[in-house]
Amino acid sequence: MKRKITEGIMNSVEMTFLIKVIKDDFILSNASSILDKSIINTNIKESFTEDILTILIPKLNTCVKNKESVVFETLINIDDSYYNYSLEKNSCRFKITILPNLDSENISFISVTFINLTQLIEFEYEGKNYRNEYNNLMTLLKTAGLVIWRWDVRNDKTTASKGYIELYDFDPEKYNAAVEWGKRIHPDQVESSFKALSDHLEGKSDFFHTDHMYTHSKYDDYIWISVLGLTVEFYDDGSPKTLMGITQNITDKENYKLNLQNSLAKLEEANRIKSEFLATMSHEIRTPMNAILGLTHLALQTGLNEKQYSYISKIDHSAKLLLEIINDILDYSKIEAGKLELEKAPIDLDYNLNTISTLFAMRAQELGVELIYHFDSDIPINLKGDPLRINQILSNLVSNSLKFTEKGEIVITVYKLDEYNDKMKIGFSVKDTGIGISDSKLNTLFESFQQADTSITRKYGGTGLGLTIVKNLVMLMNGEISIESELNVGTTIK
């Protein structure tokens, strides 16, 4: 019993006891917190430990003798070696108030109140910290443009943090919040916003969220707000009782998004105009180029002397190179404009490989490079696809390999990857023993107008469009392309 009373005093902020005075004895009559009914009507010497009695009894005697109140502060230290207390603190400072109750000329009762000053100071300190944290939170919310609100669904009562009136443009204590909110939403977004709310209230969604335009007296145009809410309390029947949520002014974000969309639209339009210009110019240039090629071909068939033949041959070679560049630009512009369409025609891959081999055989022989191709016998001959574009891909890859291979071989391999229903996935690889490419350059190799090294353009020529076109054509055919390379060893493109 003594242990329980001491624990009650030491662990409480405030505790009051009513003590009956009978001659020279003090009988415990009641307590503000009844810890144990057995303490009632017992002598305080049986109820309190010596740590407290040593302080209390002299003050009680003073109160009785002088018939006046006694108020004092003292430090109570509890020795827990005997009772094994469950104390938050073994030592606390108290303010003890002893008030007598006079019955005629005698004191019949005394009220004794223990106020734990140590606990009060700590609670005040914690409360100050909580207030500081709350103020910091409110400052953070204001800085972020956030408002926290709480809505009583049935009674339509809204309480909110500071900033609600500024953001919503009305006082929730003076207006019906849901109705006023609905009046200010952009007409085109009222239905979707209230549907989002009703879906959540009906349990169809885990939370309520809507971004919408909102009319505000402070602004000439609509502002954008984002509302996010969640039911935090329910009635016994399961219906929503209280919603809590946050609202944020997202006008700047939406304006940025709109500006970005407009910029992207302008960029796409400029890109489309550029692609159309390139396509038109390429067509315009190809017409006279074809005439030059035709005439040089005819001129080479006539009786030319050695010097004339050399001049015309160089014109013919340069014109063909220029036509290749023009064709690349034309294809690239078509791909960018999304106007390149694939055909679906019969393909004889063996014939295609023979064509590629014949096309590059003389050039490979001049370089001293062996041109080899392997064809998987499991691949049927009755396939359909775009033979022209497959030839273009392989021609680009083989031409690229020949450009950077001074000795060794170039191996073209065609193999079956997969077969399902009436479709077959075919793999192609072009492997060379050329100069190779460093790892740091591999990631940019398929980008437009890129070369593995700027010196390559000067030494070997080219626009850097070939592999970009190859990659885009492969992707149009729902394929994938990858490259493996090692400096001074060679390159494999699959």
Description:
- The protein is of the alpha+beta class and about 500 residues long.
- It has 14 helices and 18 strands.
- Strands 3-2-1-6-5-4 form a 6-stranded antiparallel beta sheet. It has a 5-stranded antiparallel beta sheet with strand order 8-7-11-10-9, with helices on both faces. The chain has a 5-stranded mixed beta sheet with strand order 13-15-16-18-17, with helices on one face.
- A hairpin with a 2-residue loop joins strand 15 (about 410-420) and strand 16.
- Helix 9 (about 305-335) packs across helix 14 and helix 11 (about 385-405) packs antiparallel against helix 14 (about 465-475).
- It starts with a helix and ends with a strand.
- The model has no long low-confidence stretch (mean pLDDT about 80).
Give the topology, please.
Layout: H1 2-11, E1 14-22, E2 25-31, E3 42-43, H2 44-47, H3 50-66, E4 70-77, E5 91-103, E6 106-116, H4 117-144, E7 146-152, E8 157-160, H5 164-168, H6 177-184, H7 190-201, E9 208-214, E10 223-234, E11 240-249, H8 251-300, H9 306-337, E12 345-347, H10 349-367, E13 369-375, E14 383-385, H11 387-404, E15 408-420, E16 423-432, H12 439-442, H13 454-460, H14 466-476, E17 483-486, E18 490-493
Helix pairs in contact: 8-9, 9-14, 10-11, 11-14
Strand ordering within the main sheet: 3-2-1-6-5-4
Structural class: alpha+beta
Distance between the termini: 88 Å
Number of helices: 14
**Overall pLDDT confidence:** 80
The rounded Rg comes to 46 Å
Q: Which range does the strand content fall in?
A: 25-35%
